[in-house]
Amino acid sequence: MKTFIRVVELWVPDKTRTRLEFGGSLHSGEFTEFNAVSENALFAYDEGLPGKAWASGHPVILTEFANSYFKRTDEAREAGLTCGVALPVFAGEFLMAVMVLLCGDDRKHVGAIELWHNDPDRSHEMALVDGYYGTADMFEFNSRHTKFPRGFGLPGRTWKAGMPLIIKELHNAKGFLRGEEASEIGINCGVGIPYTTGDQTWVVTFLSAQATPIARRFEIWVPNEARSALLFDSGDCSEQSDLATLYAAKTIRRGEGSIGGVWATGMPALTEHLKQDQSIAAALARASGMNQVVALPVIENARLKAVLAWYL
Known about the structure:
Blueprint: E1 5-13, E2 19-27, H1 32-39, E3 42-44, H2 48-56, E4 60-62, H3 73-79, E5 81-91, E6 94-104, E7 110-118, E8 125-134, H4 137-144, E9 148-149, H5 153-161, E10 165-168, H6 179-185, E11 187-197, E12 200-209, E13 217-223, E14 229-237, H7 243-246, E15 251-253, H8 257-265, E16 269-271, H9 280-287, E17 293-300, E18 303-311
Antiparallel strand pairs: 1-2, 1-6, 2-3, 4-5, 5-6, 7-8, 7-12, 8-9, 10-11, 11-12, 13-14, 13-18, 14-15, 16-17, 17-18
């Protein structure tokens, strides 16, 4: 299955905590040469896409690599990669890791990754910082001319919830204000991830199309009241429509599998072979033919709020 995101990378502080070094990636065979270059790269504070996210303290999107601060431009161009999104993970003021998502530009890929921002000193609405839309030109035009109040649309609802949010069947969802335009190009699922720095709020949105999905399955797991285990909160899957029933009364312990490991370490996880993961989530994903998982912690005030997992 072709996915909208081509390469997922993890960048982590080196032993001196002054530079970011390569911490692993998920990609198909066509990106092997690009991956070899990445394995030997290092990024200082505010250098390259990972370093820029570190210095900014919030997600960063770069829709054009040419003539930008992106450091692997030639190799990316040869691999057909043209856009990147960097998601930093902080525990308080200390950086844990930066996850980088790289996309390619061709006529077969439909979907979007967006970055929205609210500055309360300037507006009560959330405006688009930038976005990558693949071939969805009209949807991009409408998005760039739309703002969302708190609680409205996917960005506004994620902002209000302060939690990751999944909206399924966007063409029928009253909470998705661009549903008609999304339906016309086949976008059917939206995922929002909030980031708060002081009084500033940022929301990253993934808009997934059935033909080239962001992922085959999304899941959100949250700590129970006693913070002794993670419970399934919500999800969307192309193969199984009722994940809530599958996960009823199921939990993931701290440190268990990829998702529980994210809770234990505060670090994002890239798992290339799910057979190495013994959690209930991995078992059900393997049963549906999925082999890889990306798990991202959502942390606020140095405490885990949720784990967003997506399966490839």
